[in-house]
Amino acid sequence: MCNRYSLTAELSDLTANFRIDRVHVPYLMRYNIAPTQQIPIIQQIGEERCLNQQRWGLMPYWGKNSVNANLDTLGDRRYLRNMLTKKRCVVPCSGFYIWKQEGKHKSAWRVVHQYKKTFAIPAIYDVWLDSEKIEYPMCTVITRGYAFGTDHPLPLILDDDAIDLWLNPGETRIETLQSLLYSLKDSDFRIYPVTSYVENEAWETPDCIEEVHPSMALVKV
After folding, report:
1. pLDDT at 8
2. Where is the signal peptide (predicted)?
3. Could you tell me if 123 and 206 are in contact, meaning their C-beta atoms sit under 8 angstroms apart?
4. CB-based contacts of 197: which residues, under 8 Å, 6+ apart?
5. Is the pLDDT at 20 greater than 90, yes or no?
6. Residues 6 or more apart from 124 whose CB is under 8 A from it?
7. CA torsion, points 70, 18, 138, 47, in degrees to nearest 10?
8. If DSSP codes are grouped into helix, strand and coil, which group holds residue 110?
9. Per-residue pLDDT for 62 more than 70?
């Protein structure tokens, strides 16, 4: 999912659309979510589907690309394979950002779903214990290929039926789980230029998602 995304759904819409039973954490709409931040995730806890939060990105010793996990190599690494069978969650997303290189400059663009205001990105997670045995849940989203001619990984998206199976802890068959994961066609998305301020992860305002003239999307490299 490159390294920025937004979640701009109202809590009432989010809980209704994803059939969330319980909200465990305070919820705020987010316009410029970045790696290592705490992000909203959906997971199954007992009989309830819950809105919780986790750190976006696995701990550094697991490699530089800890924000995204490529579907094509997911089964090649034991720790990722174990998470796939036992620790799955969903990252709700209203749109993600990419940057296009144009000569000496790059421009910021937002990618949204043509038919869904908020969509479900499959993710896997683990829990890190510190020296005092305090738990720190952390997740990575599953991607495949690249988005719109850039080098930014393209997140996969779950449909409603796939969400149910993905969050079902009783499903552990890797082949079945991988069959739920597929890339959408470019035509299923809309892409539009946004302010270059999204490059700054501290910039967290509604104007991050507003469409701008392409010249306003340029970021100096």
Report:
1. 97
2. none
3. no
4. 203, 207, 208
5. yes
6. 69, 80, 83, 84, 87, 88, 89, 139, 140, 142
7. -120
8. strand
9. no
Half-sphere exposure of 85 (CA within 13 A, CB side): 10
Please state whether beta strands 88-93 and 119-129 pair in parallel, antiparallel, or not at all (unpaired).
antiparallel
Residue in 109, 103, 50, 80 with CA at minimum distance from that of residue 177: 80
Tell me the CATH number for domain 5-94+117-185. 3.90.1680.10
Could you give the CA distance from residue 141 to residue 5 in angstroms, rounded to a whole number? 12
DSSP tag of 161: H
Written as one letter, the residue type at 137 is: P
Quick one: what percent of the chain has pLDDT higher than 70? Answer: 94
Neighbours of 50 (CB within 10 A): 18
pLDDT, position 221: 47
Whether residue 191 contacts residue 111, with contact meaning beta carbons closer than 8 Å, is answered with: yes
Q: Give every CB contact of residue 128 below 8 A, 6+ residues apart in sequence.
A: 59, 135, 136, 137, 138
Higher pLDDT, 192 or 217: 192
From residue 44, give the alpha-carbon distance in Å to each of 40, 48, 153: 14, 6, 26
List, in order, residues 6 or more apart from 3 with CB less than 8 Å away: 34, 35, 67, 152
What mean pLDDT comes out for the span 158-166?
Answer: 94
Measured CA to CA, the distance from residue 172 to residue 83 in angstroms comes to: 10
Whether residue 65 has pLDDT greater than 80 = no
